[in-house]
Amino acid sequence: EPLIGVLALQGDVREHIALLERAGARAVPVRRPAELAGVDGLVLPGGESTTMSRLLETFELLEPVRERIAGGMPAYGSCAGMILLARQVLDGRPDQRQLDGLDVVVRRNAFGRQVDSFEADLDFAGLDGGPVHAVFIRAPWVEKAADGVEILAHTAAAGDQAARIVAIRQGPVLATAFHPELTGDERVHRLFVKMVHETK
Ligand code: GLN
Protein backbone atom coordinates (compact mmCIF):
# COMPACT_ATOMS: atom_id res chain seq x y z
CA GLU A 1 0.00 0.00 0.00
CA PRO A 2 1.53 3.35 -0.99
CA LEU A 3 2.59 5.89 1.61
CA ILE A 4 1.56 9.48 0.96
CA GLY A 5 3.33 12.42 2.57
CA VAL A 6 1.77 15.76 3.43
CA LEU A 7 4.23 18.65 3.43
CA ALA A 8 3.98 19.79 7.05
CA LEU A 9 5.81 23.09 7.22
CA GLN A 10 2.66 25.22 7.40
CA GLY A 11 -0.99 25.06 6.43
CA ASP A 12 -3.88 22.61 6.88
CA VAL A 13 -1.83 19.43 7.21
CA ARG A 14 -4.08 17.45 9.57
CA GLU A 15 -7.13 17.82 7.37
CA HIS A 16 -5.24 16.34 4.41
CA ILE A 17 -3.90 13.45 6.47
CA ALA A 18 -7.40 12.65 7.75
CA LEU A 19 -8.91 12.65 4.24
CA LEU A 20 -6.08 10.58 2.75
CA GLU A 21 -6.65 7.98 5.45
CA ARG A 22 -10.39 7.99 4.77
CA ALA A 23 -9.55 7.55 1.10
CA GLY A 24 -7.69 4.36 2.00
CA ALA A 25 -4.07 5.53 2.01
CA ARG A 26 -1.39 5.59 4.67
CA ALA A 27 -0.40 9.24 5.26
CA VAL A 28 2.46 10.89 7.15
CA PRO A 29 3.66 14.46 7.68
CA VAL A 30 6.87 15.39 5.81
CA ARG A 31 9.28 17.92 7.32
CA ARG A 32 12.69 16.55 6.34
CA PRO A 33 14.42 15.21 3.26
CA ALA A 34 14.66 11.71 4.82
CA GLU A 35 10.87 11.66 5.30
CA LEU A 36 10.35 12.82 1.72
CA ALA A 37 12.55 9.98 0.48
CA GLY A 38 10.17 7.44 2.04
CA VAL A 39 6.92 8.54 0.43
CA ASP A 40 5.32 7.52 -2.87
CA GLY A 41 3.40 10.78 -3.34
CA LEU A 42 3.20 14.22 -1.75
CA VAL A 43 0.34 16.57 -0.88
CA LEU A 44 1.08 20.30 -0.69
CA PRO A 45 -1.59 21.77 1.59
CA GLY A 46 -3.43 25.05 1.61
CA GLY A 47 -1.91 27.85 3.63
CA GLU A 48 0.35 30.63 2.43
CA SER A 49 2.57 29.90 -0.56
CA THR A 50 5.11 32.63 0.21
CA THR A 51 5.63 31.24 3.74
CA MET A 52 5.79 27.65 2.51
CA SER A 53 8.31 28.65 -0.16
CA ARG A 54 10.51 30.26 2.48
CA LEU A 55 10.20 27.26 4.84
CA LEU A 56 10.95 24.83 1.99
CA GLU A 57 14.27 26.63 1.60
CA THR A 58 14.95 26.82 5.36
CA PHE A 59 14.23 23.10 5.84
CA GLU A 60 16.33 22.25 2.75
CA LEU A 61 13.37 20.63 1.09
CA LEU A 62 12.93 22.85 -1.96
CA GLU A 63 15.43 21.10 -4.23
CA PRO A 64 14.59 17.59 -2.97
CA VAL A 65 10.87 18.16 -3.62
CA ARG A 66 11.59 19.66 -7.04
CA GLU A 67 13.76 16.67 -7.90
CA ARG A 68 11.18 14.12 -6.77
CA ILE A 69 8.49 15.88 -8.81
CA ALA A 70 10.77 16.11 -11.85
CA GLY A 71 11.39 12.38 -11.40
CA GLY A 72 7.68 11.60 -11.66
CA MET A 73 6.50 11.43 -8.04
CA PRO A 74 2.74 12.13 -7.92
CA ALA A 75 1.87 15.41 -6.20
CA TYR A 76 -1.38 17.13 -5.28
CA GLY A 77 -1.59 20.78 -4.28
CA SER A 78 -4.61 22.58 -2.88
CA CYS A 79 -4.69 26.39 -3.10
CA ALA A 80 -1.25 27.49 -1.83
CA GLY A 81 -0.06 24.04 -2.96
CA MET A 82 -1.33 24.73 -6.49
CA ILE A 83 0.65 27.98 -6.48
CA LEU A 84 3.84 26.18 -5.41
CA LEU A 85 3.43 23.49 -8.07
CA ALA A 86 3.01 25.96 -10.92
CA ARG A 87 5.82 26.93 -13.27
CA GLN A 88 5.01 30.62 -12.84
CA VAL A 89 3.01 32.79 -10.45
CA LEU A 90 1.57 36.23 -11.11
CA ASP A 91 1.11 38.59 -8.14
CA GLY A 92 3.51 36.48 -6.09
CA ARG A 93 6.33 37.81 -3.95
CA PRO A 94 9.54 38.40 -5.93
CA ASP A 95 11.47 35.81 -3.89
CA GLN A 96 8.74 33.16 -4.04
CA ARG A 97 10.07 29.87 -5.47
CA GLN A 98 8.25 27.43 -7.77
CA LEU A 99 8.32 23.63 -7.89
CA ASP A 100 7.70 23.45 -11.67
CA GLY A 101 5.37 20.46 -11.49
CA LEU A 102 2.67 22.02 -13.67
CA ASP A 103 3.21 23.83 -16.94
CA VAL A 104 0.81 26.61 -15.99
CA VAL A 105 0.74 30.24 -14.97
CA VAL A 106 -1.35 30.87 -11.86
CA ARG A 107 -2.51 34.18 -10.48
CA ARG A 108 -2.19 34.39 -6.72
CA ASN A 109 -5.09 35.80 -4.65
CA ALA A 110 -6.87 36.12 -8.00
CA PHE A 111 -10.47 36.08 -6.81
CA GLY A 112 -9.51 38.26 -3.86
CA ARG A 113 -9.96 41.40 -5.87
CA GLN A 114 -13.69 40.74 -5.94
CA VAL A 115 -14.18 38.76 -2.75
CA ASP A 116 -11.81 37.04 -0.29
CA SER A 117 -13.63 33.75 -0.02
CA PHE A 118 -16.64 32.06 -1.55
CA GLU A 119 -18.14 28.64 -2.12
CA ALA A 120 -19.43 27.08 -5.32
CA ASP A 121 -20.67 23.73 -6.61
CA LEU A 122 -18.44 22.65 -9.49
CA ASP A 123 -18.60 19.89 -12.05
CA PHE A 124 -15.31 18.03 -11.73
CA ALA A 125 -14.30 15.91 -14.73
CA GLY A 126 -13.96 12.23 -13.89
CA LEU A 127 -15.53 12.35 -10.42
CA ASP A 128 -18.79 10.46 -9.94
CA GLY A 129 -21.42 11.48 -7.42
CA GLY A 130 -22.38 14.96 -8.52
CA PRO A 131 -20.75 18.38 -8.22
CA VAL A 132 -17.97 19.10 -5.74
CA HIS A 133 -18.78 21.73 -3.13
CA ALA A 134 -15.69 23.92 -3.37
CA VAL A 135 -14.45 26.35 -0.72
CA PHE A 136 -12.20 29.12 -2.04
CA ILE A 137 -10.08 31.17 0.40
CA ARG A 138 -7.91 33.88 -1.17
CA ALA A 139 -7.61 31.39 -3.97
CA PRO A 140 -5.52 31.45 -7.12
CA TRP A 141 -6.83 30.65 -10.58
CA VAL A 142 -5.01 29.16 -13.54
CA GLU A 143 -4.44 31.96 -15.99
CA LYS A 144 -2.65 29.96 -18.67
CA ALA A 145 -2.24 26.22 -19.17
CA ALA A 146 0.04 24.51 -21.68
CA ASP A 147 -1.18 21.79 -24.04
CA GLY A 148 -1.24 18.54 -22.12
CA VAL A 149 -2.67 20.08 -18.98
CA GLU A 150 -6.15 18.62 -18.38
CA ILE A 151 -8.75 21.10 -17.18
CA LEU A 152 -10.86 19.28 -14.58
CA ALA A 153 -13.03 22.11 -13.25
CA HIS A 154 -13.74 25.77 -13.70
CA THR A 155 -15.95 28.31 -11.99
CA ALA A 156 -19.08 29.50 -13.76
CA ALA A 157 -18.99 32.85 -15.52
CA ALA A 158 -21.02 35.42 -13.60
CA GLY A 159 -21.61 39.05 -14.55
CA ASP A 160 -18.32 40.51 -15.74
CA GLN A 161 -16.37 37.65 -14.12
CA ALA A 162 -15.22 35.09 -16.69
CA ALA A 163 -15.15 31.34 -16.03
CA ARG A 164 -11.83 30.47 -14.38
CA ILE A 165 -9.83 27.25 -14.35
CA VAL A 166 -9.64 25.93 -10.77
CA ALA A 167 -8.70 22.24 -11.05
CA ILE A 168 -6.08 20.68 -13.32
CA ARG A 169 -4.01 17.58 -13.86
CA GLN A 170 -0.80 17.12 -15.78
CA GLY A 171 0.41 13.51 -15.73
CA PRO A 172 0.99 12.60 -12.06
CA VAL A 173 0.43 16.15 -10.76
CA LEU A 174 -3.01 17.30 -9.59
CA ALA A 175 -4.04 20.71 -8.26
CA THR A 176 -7.16 22.48 -7.04
CA ALA A 177 -7.52 26.18 -6.27
CA PHE A 178 -10.05 25.20 -3.59
CA HIS A 179 -9.85 23.08 -0.43
CA PRO A 180 -11.56 19.67 -0.53
CA GLU A 181 -9.77 18.95 2.75
CA LEU A 182 -12.04 21.50 4.47
CA THR A 183 -15.39 20.07 3.38
CA GLY A 184 -14.70 16.39 4.02
CA ASP A 185 -15.57 15.37 0.45
CA GLU A 186 -12.92 12.71 -0.10
CA ARG A 187 -13.37 12.22 -3.85
CA VAL A 188 -10.45 14.44 -4.92
CA HIS A 189 -8.20 12.64 -2.42
CA ARG A 190 -9.45 9.27 -3.73
CA LEU A 191 -8.48 10.40 -7.23
CA PHE A 192 -5.01 11.30 -5.97
CA VAL A 193 -4.61 8.00 -4.09
CA LYS A 194 -5.55 6.22 -7.34
CA MET A 195 -2.93 8.26 -9.22
CA VAL A 196 -0.30 7.19 -6.65
CA HIS A 197 -1.36 3.54 -7.01
CA GLU A 198 -1.06 3.79 -10.79
CA THR A 199 2.46 5.21 -10.57
CA LYS A 200 3.78 2.74 -8.02
N1 GLN B 1 -3.38 33.23 -0.84
C1 GLN B 1 -2.62 32.09 -0.40
C2 GLN B 1 -1.26 32.06 -1.06
O1 GLN B 1 -0.87 32.94 -1.75
C3 GLN B 1 -3.35 30.80 -0.66
C4 GLN B 1 -4.56 30.71 0.24
C5 GLN B 1 -4.92 29.34 0.63
O2 GLN B 1 -4.16 28.37 0.53
N2 GLN B 1 -6.12 29.23 1.15
O3 GLN B 1 -0.56 31.08 -0.90
UniProtKB/TrEMBL annotation:
Q: Where does L-glutamine bind?
A: G47, E48, S49, R108, I137, R138
What keywords sit in the KW lines? Answer: Glutamine amidotransferase, Hydrolase, Lyase, Pyridoxal phosphate
Asked if Lyase is a keyword of the record, the answer is yes
Which residues does UniProt assign to the signal peptide?
Answer: none
Pfam families, from UniProt?
A: SNO
What terms describe the molecular function in GO for this protein?
glutaminase activity; pyridoxal 5'-phosphate synthase (glutamine hydrolysing) activity
The superkingdom of the source organism is Bacteria
The answer, when asked if Zinc-finger is one of the entry's keywords, is no
Per the record, its GO cellular-component terms are:
cytosol; glutaminase complex
**Catalytic residue positions:** C79, H179, E181
- Catalysed reaction equations from the record: L-glutamine + H2O = L-glutamate + NH4(+); aldehydo-D-ribose 5-phosphate + D-glyceraldehyde 3-phosphate + L-glutamine = pyridoxal 5'-phosphate + L-glutamate + phosphate + 3 H2O + H(+)
What EC number(s) does its UniProt record assign? 4.3.3.6, 3.5.1.2
Q: Which CDD domains match?
A: GATase1_PB
Supply one GO BP term: L-glutamine catabolic process
Pathway listed for it is: Cofactor biosynthesis; pyridoxal 5'-phosphate biosynthesis
Cite the PANTHER family for this sequence.
PYRIDOXAL 5'-PHOSPHATE SYNTHASE SUBUNIT SNO, PYRIDOXAL 5'-PHOSPHATE SYNTHASE SUBUNIT SNO1-RELATED
Role played: Catalyzes the hydrolysis of glutamine to glutamate and ammonia as part of the biosynthesis of pyridoxal 5'-phosphate. The resulting ammonia molecule is channeled to the active site of PdxS.
Family, similarity comment: Belongs to the glutaminase PdxT/SNO family.
Subunit (UniProt)? In the presence of PdxS, forms a dodecamer of heterodimers. Only shows activity in the heterodimer.
What protein am I looking at?
Answer: Pyridoxal 5'-phosphate synthase subunit PdxT
Quote the gene name from the UniProt entry: pdxT
